[in-house]
Specification:
CATH topology of chain B: Alpha-Beta Plaits
Distance between the termini of chain B: 24 Å
Oligomer: heterodimer
Number of domains of chain A: 2
Shape of chain B: globular
Number of domains of chain B: 1
Order of helices and strands of chain A: HHHHHHEEEHHHHHHHEEHHEEH
Strand order of the largest sheet of chain A: 1-2-3
Distance between the termini of chain A: 49 Å
Number of strands of chain A: 7
CATH architecture of the largest domain in chain A: Up-down Bundle
Strand order of the largest sheet of chain B: 6-1-8-7-9
Chain lengths: ~375, ~210
Amino acid sequence: MKREVFRSGAWGLGVTSVLALLIVVGSRNLAHFDAALVAYTFSLLFATFGLTYRYSMWLSRPPTAMFWRRGWQALLRRPWGQGHARAWLSGMALDLLANRFLFRRDRLRGWTHLLIMWGCILAVAITFPLVFGWLHFRPVAGDLSLYQVVVFGFPAFRFPHDSAFAFFLFHGLVWASLLVIAGVMLAVRRRLRDGGAGAVQRFAEDFMPLILLFAVSVTGLMLTASYTWMKGYGFTFVSILHAVTVIATFIWLPFGKFFHVFQRPAQFGAGLYRSVSISGDQASCRRCGHAFSSRAHVLDLIEVERQLGYRYDIEGSEAEHYQWICPPCRRATFAAAQSRAWRGHRGGEPLTADRRSPPMPVYVNSGLGQGPLGEEDAKNRHA
Amino acid sequence: MPVPETLEFFVDPARCIGCQSCVQACTECDTHKGQSMIQLDYIDRAGSTQTVPVVCMHCDSPTCAEVCPADAIKRTEDGVVQTARKPRCIACNNCVLACPFGVPKMNSEASLMMKCDMCYDRTSVGLKPMCASVCPSQALAFGTREEMARMRPSATPVNTFRFGGQTIRTKVNVMVSADAPDNCIDVTAAMFDASTGHDVLDDVFGEVGQE
């Protein structure tokens, strides 16, 4: 067995065991554990193992391991003044909670994701504590109009069971399903109408999660409809159907698109690493001499490429390694190499005297809005 | 649907006249609407008019995908290296710096790497990529090997490149002289070469449309 497989399996077992322990402790030795939800609990334990295993395997990849290490180093080294902390936290909040970067990609996609994301967060915040026995309600002795909320075995707050607050709280999953259904419909609409999306989408990767979310939400709503307006008609069947869809979703968590929920926070590690490394030494292109990235990033990439088995070292050249060549000069070198292959045929004479340091290539139409896409791109291409 | 096996991309930068048709046409592609993924550079603006259009070469073992910490770049079964998967890309810039051909672009604002995907919406149904469909000098051409052999008898396609100690094979071909000594282009050997003039005398549209 490979070392990373063994390590990931151990992490998976460890984290799953901790969750199982917390379930026992939080439900006060299973006293408040709802036996009807036991299938949900075991599917979540499975999902926890799967997610931890995959996350650990993901971290064992050389580039991921490098960013993981550098991200944490950047976080610990960063000068955490009030201004820095505020800027970082607001950036986190805007990107993570309000999906700012998604709205910048496409406004409709931003709304789609925001609806699905907040619907799922709301559903998870309600369902998981109930499934684990960490949350339950009990009537207050002496005043049966009140409900006592008990969290992790500790009494939290009380509220009247016929209040508006109670209505909104007990129908929390209804609001969550409405958000998710709206988001799923927008997502499906895009996938059916957008030719670009249609060309690259895959059923398992792109439609399966939407189908699962839709099935969970609709069957959940059917339960509410059954006991609210239909005197419980078909409740048993629908509850089993709902359980099947929910359990299928939990089991699918580690395998498909849902895993991006756990990968996405890496964006902040990457951002921190970039902001710290960019204030350090810069890497100069060994062809044109212009700075194009942080030196730390280039050195890290060289190491990662070697770990992956790539051999971009250039023996006998002052460039030493191809990673020291900036992207525009790589494109120019590509053209020069093709020119060599035509030497003696299509003219093929050098137009300028051979120079030790060739000039940096420039984008042909940078003035027409087709130039660099962003700040990072601009730096890479010397614009 | 996969890209038909008989259809291939053939690039001949020496034919490029820098007209920017490819850049404009690229923005029409459905998979990256409004954004041009073509990299079109003047190699030595002060000394020459030589330009180089660079599309993704779709490597067999794509360095961009291998160095991606988020596993965001996937290669489809038909050998097309897709642009970054939007849910996964964390905008770390590894791919931009690592691509041996200098292809990916980083859209920092949207936290997303974008690159040429050979107009997958078109090529997967047998159509030409946008750039190849408008290139007047056919520096960017898409068709069968037989067509290329007929139209460019003095050239031969090559898809193996050497970068220092690394050899990379690609799905996209580069046209070199049929008399070229070997079937591998040593890219880094030409790193400090000056810009080169070319006389391209082949009949560009020789037999197009006669099929």
